[in-house]
Amino acid sequence: MTDDTFHASRRGILRGAAASAVGALAVAVGLDRLGGASPVRAAAPPGAAAVPDATVARAAAATSLALRGRGWNLTGVSHRPGRIPGAGERGSVSGELIDPATGASVGTFRSATFHGGRDAADLELHTFDLGDGMLVGMGASQGGEGTFAIIGGTGRFAGARGAYAARQGHREVGGDGGADFAFTILS
Question: Using CB atoms within 10 A as the burial measure, which of 50, 73, 162, 167 is most buried?
Answer without folding.
Answer: 162
